[in-house]
Amino acid sequence: MLASKRKKIFYIKKYSIWELCKTNLSKLGFAIVLSLANPLTLNMNSFIERNRRDIMSVYLKKQNI
Question: CA 34 to CA 62: how far, in whole Å?
Answer without folding.
Answer: 35
